[in-house]
Structure formats: C-alpha cells, structure tokens
Design brief:
Chain lengths: ~160, ~750
C-alpha cells in the first residue's frame, strides 16, 4: 500500500504492508534508526516521534496512518553539527547512559517544552512517566529538562 | 603538564552520537540478503516432546528454512557454565534447542528463517507440536518434594548446596543469650535492558569466517564457547560489539540464540538477524533474585551479633547456565554484609524449577542478602530494646579490622576478605546528610492520611573480578592516540572514563585521545568484560600498565632518531622530544603500539549506607519517597558525574525490586507477566527525592587507581532500607515486611492484618 508523508521536512513515499508500524517503517524502510523500539506495545516510549507536533508512539501507529502527516524523529531535531539546547542539557546533566531510551525522551521532552516552557518538576515527571529509562533513575533527566526550559522560552529550542 | 582528568566530572564522548539518534545498535544494522530469524518457544512449562512437524511451516510464503535439533549433527550443543563450572552442574546444563523435554515457558524449540520478521512469525503457527505435559515444578517447595523431576537421571531437583562457613556457629548459638529465626523472601526480578537482545551473524564460506554482531559484556568468553560449539578456531570468529542498550548483568551472557543465529547463518549461507521482542525478552533473558531464607541470628544482650545460620532456597529456573550460580553463592557468602559476624553457617540450596533460568542481575545475591540481614537486625534491635542505629554502629566492621575475612564457601573454596574501609563512618555520614536525628520524630506519625517511616540499611559491594584485563594504546596517522580495550561497554560511559585515564597516564590533553575502542574481539589479545563492577578498576589498571609499556615502546622507537638514550625521550603532547630540545612529530611514530595487562585475584569492596524517609498510604498501599540518601565510598572516583549516574540509576532499579517488580508464574509454571503492563518498572513519577553522596575516604589498596567497583551499591541496600522504613511507618499495625516486593497490595495486606489483630 502506498503512503506519502513528510519526515524531518522532506516528503517521502513508500509502499508498505498495511500492518507495518510507523516505527518499523521509519527504521527499516527509511533508514531512520534513531527511533528505537523497546516494547512494541506502547509502554516504554522509546519509539516516540512527533506527528504534526504531538508526541506519538510510533509502535502503536501504523505507517499508513501517517498519510499526509508531518513526522519529526530525533534525527530531525538535531543540528548537523553540535547539539540542540535540550540535547546539550542532557549531556551536561548525564541524563543518558546506554542511550536507548534517549531519542524517545528527547522527542517527548521537546514536545513538552515547546508547549509548556514554564513546566515544573512535577509536570516534567508526569509527562516523562510514559517513557521508561532503565539506567538513570530519571533524576538527571528531570534536571536536564528543567535546565533546558530557558532555551524554549526564548523561542524554539532548536 | 600534570593532568587531573581523573576525579573531574566530565561530559561523555558517547553522548554526541546517542543524543542525535546516531548510535548504532545491533538492530540498526542492515545487510544485503539478510534473513530474519524468529524462534519457536515452548508454551508448556514441563513436558515431553512427542511429535514435532515443521513441513507446513517450510511451505509458508517468505520462509527460507526451519531449523530444529535434527539439523545439528551430534545434537544441539550444551551451554556451559562460565563461572563456577562445577561437575555437579553438568547434568543440569541447557541444550541450545529443546529436543526431548521442555522445561520452561519460553524455551527455544526451533528457528524459522524468513524474508521478514512478519513472515517468520506467521509461519510459527504452522509448526505442529505435540507435547505431553508433565507436572510442573513451580517453586522451591515443589522442587524439594522431588515428585516431579526436571532431570530424571539426576534423581533430584537440587543441583547443589553452597555452604558458607566461618567459626563455629552451632556452638555460638548454643550459648547465645538471644536468638531469632525468620522466614524472608525476595521476588523474581530481571535485568531488563531497554534494548532487547539481538544477534546478527554473517558466514563467509570462502574464508571460513564468522562475524557476529550484537556481542556484549563478555565477547571473548562467548567466542570461546561458540568456537567450541560450532567447530571453528577462535581466530575464525569475530565478535562485534555495537552500541549496547543496557546490561545490568543479564545482557551478554551466552544464551541459546548466541549459538542458534551464527549456526543458522552458516547453515543457509546467508546473513541472519534476530531481534528479541519484549515478550520473548521477559521469558528468555535471565531471571534473578527469587529466594527464600529460613535464617537465624544470635546476639549478645548488648546487641553484638554473635552468629548467623540457616538455609536459603534459591529458585534457579530450569537450567544451570553461564553465571547462574553466582547469586546463590553470593547470598550465603555475603549474608553478613558489612557487619562483624564471627560465626556463620549458611547453606544455599539451588532448586531447579520450570521457570526461565537465572543469571546475575546487578548486585546478585547481595540485594537478597541485604534484605534478609537488615530485617533480622531491625527485629533483633527491637527485641533487645536497643536503638536500631546503635545496633548497627555496634556491629559495623571498623577500619582497624581491615582486611576483614568473611565466610568461606564450599564446594568452590571461595575465600575472601574485604579490602579497606570504615563502614561506620559511612553510616554516620549518611545519617548526617539525611538528618536522621531531626527526622526521627516523624517515625510512625500519621500526617495528612499517610504514615511516615524511616529506614536504614548498610552494604558492601564487591567489584574488580579477576583474573585479568587487557588494554592497548597506539599512535594514529594524525599523531593522536587511540585506546583499545578488552573490556566492554553496556552504556556506562567507557569511552569517556578510559579517555580520562589514558590522558592522565600519558600526561596529554584529553583531546589527543582520538577514540576509545572497546568490546569487539579484534582490538586486544584477550579480554574479560563488564561484570562484577570491574571495567573501570580492572580495565583502568590495565590501561595504566599499557601506558607504561606504550611510553617504553615510543622511547625505543624514537631514541635512534633523536640520537639519545631511550630513557631520555619523553612524550610531549603531539611530539616526541629528546633531552637537547630536538623533537619529532608523534605522527612519525604512527603504528607504535603497546598492550598492558592487569592481573588480580582479589576484590574491591566499596561500601556505604542508605537512609529512607517514606510516607505510606494505608488505604491505597502506595509508598511515597520523601527523602532518600545513599552514601557510598568508592575509594577513588574517575568521573564523579557518571558515578553519580551509577549510584542513582542502580538505586531506582533497587526501588523497583523493593516496591514493584516481580516475574510471576502460576502453579502450572505458566508465565503471567509477559508484558511491561504486567512486569512493572519504575517510571519518572515513582521515586523522586533521591540523593547520593560519593566519598573517597578509603582507596583500594589492591589496584594502582585506588578505585573500587561502584555500579551496584545503589541497588543492593534498597530492599532493606524500604522494608525497614515500611515497618517503621506501620508500627501501629505491628507490620513487619517479610517479603519483597512491597507492592500496594502487599502493603494493604500488612495494614489489614495489623488492623485485624488490633480488633481481636
């Protein structure tokens, strides 16, 4: 089945089985392996991408459902060189170890800070509670997200 | 120049790729002609295979082959024990595919190779399988009855008894003025890695070479096992470590798939990839922790611990494999923890059950031992009318007693002693940072509908397992230097930590260290890996040795060109300089390389204490963390930033084990927790308000860095601290937690039992 959508600002057209998830489509058909698959049942949040600006679990969405959407993956948030303020804050606070949950954390936190640059620690914890990290214990991730708020207040965070 | 990278909090090198989605995990690899492996797993816990027909599955669209035990000449190979390879374990070891019996839900039976994962999964249902169910052995008590045997030829479901002995415990108990006996239990957990396991194997038929990606933790060990099983010399196999999405002891052990996928690739002469899904991971990756202790403590009236004795029953699952005996050994060897216990007699019984086999999970046996002992101490202190902190102060090993000898374990003759440290000082620091004295007034208080409680727990953490680690340094074409390691990265920051150590050892700016290569089998002559909190200590010490050898090699190479004695040559950032001021660019010495090894048969012991302030909702059973402090003395911290990550990260894993995590089976051995909605992991809202203080008061005397393994201290004492805090909070109900995890329903039952008792 053919499907057309936009990924990281570029139009794509792929032919997929109707049962293919958006996560597998991004990873295996489009080569965007930054989106990780940790559970395939919508609990761990590692596959979180932005679909029309909203944080979405790419393992719970079919690729064909993305027809006409604007999809942004972790690769699309990054600059060619260097880190975004949010990514730099993750590095500064040691908010990642193995890095497997990190793309989902970054996309989820980016969506949050884009909407609510004044969120407090409780709100950060609440929103990130849909993303499992097995390494950090979350303390440093919450610190990193709070520390990145300033960049979003000043417009964007990209 | 004199560097001080060691000891400085440094941002990680690996983050630059991981943060931008540019990491490369094994499932990110693609090859032309790739086939996808899907594994048929037993849905029956215990049974005899009567018939097995794969003909229909082979005809399904997209299916290339179906591999069963019949495809393996001489039968499926057996997975050996990596640690404690005792002859007693031989009859209990696992074949890579079940062929006569199945012994746990999830045991591999066949491998389907297909053009896509979906096609392979579709074909699984076409495999006809007739299994005669046998009575399941679903726990240690059923195992001990020996009515249903997992391995009939052995006549017993008990594969071994580890015996920990020190002094004469029976004599001490005969004369002790106080004794108390308890039954205590820990849940079944596992080192769930967020990245499921994966293997990608390529067979080069022309050259007779096998390349296996997805290696982790102990690639050199696993290469030896694979070479032997598959009938190739080790040199013909390259194990490739990619980015690894977490280890925690579980990932990287040799599992059935570590043979099956390379075998499949060679069998069909195509590259084959297998990526575990989460449901498989829950039933295929090593389980851990589940143990029941029937133990007794003897004390003087003043609270001095005189002796420990008893039995610990460990649920081993269906097979003994690789490091599966470590937890059962540790739980008796380290039952005394950081405390002075002159007499020990503890037996650890290894019971085979129809569950997923066990292996190590961060703090193996130590988490369990800590919970058992810390509960006993808490109960004994109350009985004796001694303040619980005073009781611990009374018994913690002092600096003057180091090196302190612990119980010897048979039949492996495991003798050990702690290396250094003042355990009481760590407790005092923890109490001070926590504000124990001020917070004590909250003990048992009901505030806004929640009962407040304080808990304390002290620990030691073993690290730096020998016998050896290897490292190499080499000059690159551009005059920078690269580091090559025998140890591995499971996400803990190896590239940064070893760049710090190398730069300090060579007295050069860290930017001159171009890359730190690790994990794959082609970088150094031999390697051991990442377990037992050993990478930094063992690999770092090896790197210091390599630096000495590297500088010697550089001097030898440069002396003739500089016209001076080798001893007078020195490395100066990007040059090699002689005594007369002449120098040559380091790039001229590209290819100069030297390896170093560190040999060690002793262990490091970092140590510390946990203090918890919690609030318990008696109606909902929730535990809220109000404040939590971990103090851990690590001897020397190479990177305080990543070390804090180890302590807090392992703490939250421990809190998960204390409050949430439990892999459950029913009486038929059916697995009940096959998703992340059933096996509950800590999330961001569960455990806030965590603090850690890392101290460096007592460097280890047994390695040149002075460092002690420190990746597990956060997890080890979490169960004891939380359970003691719950007992303190629910003192009005007489609640005494005797089992973990303390889930909301477990808490609710403690409250109800206490309320009933009060009403009677």
């Amino acid at each position: 089945m053919p499907v057309k959508f936009e990924v990281n600002g570029k139009p794509v057209e792929v032919t997929v089985e109707p049962r293919l998830t958006l996560a597998d489509c991004l990873r295996h058909h489009l080569g965007l392996t930054g989106t990780h698959v940790g559970c395939e049942h919508g609990v761990c949040g590692a596959c979180t991408v932005l679909v029309d600006g909203a944080a979405v679990r790419a393992c719970l969405m079919l690729a064909v459902q993305a027809e006409g959407s604007k999809v942004v993956t972790v690769e699309g948030l990054s600059k060619d060189e260097g880190l975004t303020p949010l990514q730099a804050s993750f590095r500064k606070h040691h908010a990642l170890q193995c890095g497997f949950c990190t793309p989902g954390m970054i996309t989820t936190a980016h969506a949050l800070l884009s909407e609510e640059p004044d969120c407090d620690a409780n709100r950060v914890r609440e929103v990130l509670s849909g993303n499992i990290c097995r390494c950090t214990g979350y303390v440093s991730i919450v610190e990193a997200v709070l520390d990145a708020r300033a960049a979003y207040k000043n417009g964007g965070g990209r | 120049m004199k560097n001080t990278y060691i000891g400085t909090p440094m941002e990680r090198r690996e983050d630059l790729r991981l943060l931008r989605g540019r990491g490369e995990y094994v499932d990110d690899l693609h090859l032309d002609g790739l086939l996808y492996a899907v594994i048929l797993r037993s849905q029956v816990a215990h049974g005899r295979i009567r018939a097995f027909d794969t003909a229909e599955a082979r005809k399904r669209p997209g299916v290339h082959a179906v591999i069963t035990a019949k495809d393996m000449p001489g039968g499926p190979p057996i997975i050996p024990m990596r640690l404690q390879p005792l002859p007693q374990f031989k009859p209990y070891e696992q074949p890579v595919l079940a062929h006569d019996k199945v012994r746990y839900v999830g045991e591999p039976l066949a491998v389907v190779l297909a053009e896509s994962v979906a096609a392979g999964e579709d074909a699984l249902e076409a495999i006809a399988l007739d299994i005669e169910a046998l009575p399941a052995v679903a726990d240690c008590a059923v195992a001990a009855a020996n009515a249903s045997l997992l391995f009939e030829a052995t006549g017993s479901n008990r594969s071994l008894v580890f015996e920990a002995r020190k002094g004469d415990a029976d004599a001490a108990f005969r004369t002790a003025p106080y004794r108390r006996r308890e039954r205590l239990r820990t849940g079944r957990h596992y080192g769930l890695t967020l990245e499921p396991r994966g293997v990608l194997a390529q067979w080069d038929a022309a050259r007779g070479r096998l390349t296996v990606s997805g290696a982790a933790k102990v690639p050199f060990f696993n290469r030896r096992i694979l070479a032997q099983q598959i009938g190739l010399p080790v040199e013909a196999i390259a194990m490739i470590e990619n980015d690894v999405g977490g280890g925690y002891g579980a990932r990287g052990e040799f599992y059935p798939e570590d043979f099956l996928i390379p075998f499949a690739a060679r069998h069909v002469n195509r590259p084959v990839k297998w990526i575990e899904d989460r449901r498989e991971n829950l039933m295929a990756m090593n389980h851990a922790r589940e143990a029941e202790a029937d133990i007794e403590i003897a004390c003087d009236r003043d609270g001095a611990i005189l002796a420990l004795r008893g039995d610990i029953h460990v649920d081993m699952g269906a097979y003994m494999r690789t490091n599966g005996a470590v937890g059962a050994r540790n739980v008796c060897q380290f039952l005394a923890g950081p405390y002075r216990v002159p007499h020990v007699k503890v037996d650890s019984h290894l019971w085979m059950t129809n569950k997923t086999p066990v292996g190590t999970y961060r703090g193996p046996g130590r988490f369990e031992a800590n919970f058992f002992l810390e509960r006993l101490i808490e109960l004994a202190a109350a009985d004796l009318g001694i303040d619980r902190i005073a009781m611990r102060r009374r018994n913690l090993v002092s600096a003057a007693e180091q090196p302190y000898p612990i119980a010897t374990v048979q039949p492996t003759d495991a003798k050990d002693q702690y290396d250094s440290g003042d355990y009481r000082a760590a407790l005092e620091r923890c109490l001070k940072e926590f504000g124990w004295d001020e917070k004590q007034k909250l003990s048992g208080r009901l505030i806004d509908g929640k009962y407040h409680g304080l808990g304390i727990s002290c620990f030691i953490e073993g690290g730096a397992a020998g016998p050896k680690e290897t490292a190499r340094l080499a000059v690159n074409d551009d005059g920078t230097i690269s580091v090559y390691l025998g140890t591995t990265s499971v996400g803990q920051g190896v590239e940064t930590i070893f760049a710090q150590i190398a730069a300090d050892a060579l007295e050069i700016p860290i930017e001159r260290i171009r890359h730190v290569h690790h994990g794959s089998t082609h970088y150094v002559s031999d390697g051991y890996g990442a377990y037992h909190s050993r990478s930094t200590v063992m690999g770092g010490s090896a790197l210091l040795e390599a630096a000495t050898n590297f500088q010697a090699a550089l001097r030898e190479a440069a002396a003739p060109k500089l016209g001076c004695d080798a001893a007078a040559v020195r490395l100066d950032v990007d040059k090699v300089a002689g005594p007369d001021g002449r120098s040559l660019p380091l790039a001229d010495f590209a290819g100069v390389s030297a390896e170093g090894a560190f040999l060690n048969h002793r262990h490091t012991y970092s140590y510390g204490a946990h203090a918890a302030h919690i609030a318990v909702d008696p109606k909902l059973g929730n535990i809220e963390i109000i404040d939590y402090v971990v103090v851990q003395d690590v001897g020397r911290a190479v990177n305080p930033l990543t070390l804090r990550g180890q302590v807090i990260g392992s703490l939250v894993q421990g809190l998960g084990g204390a409050c949430l995590e439990h892999l459950q089976y029913d009486e038929q051995g059916q697995f009940l927790t096959g998703s992340l909605a059933d096996y509950l992991l800590p999330t961001a809202t569960d455990f806030p308000n965590l603090r850690c203080i890392v101290t460096e008061d007592h460097p280890s005397p047994i390695n040149p860095l002075g460092a002690k393994g420190a990746g597990e201290g956060g997890i080890i004492a979490a169960g004891g601290a939380i359970a003691n805090a719950v007992a303190d909070a629910l003192r009005d109900f007489g609640a005494q937690p005797r089992a973990l995890p303390l889930t909301p329903s477990a808490i609710w039952h403690l409250v109800q039992a206490g309320a009933r008792k009060a009403a009677e």
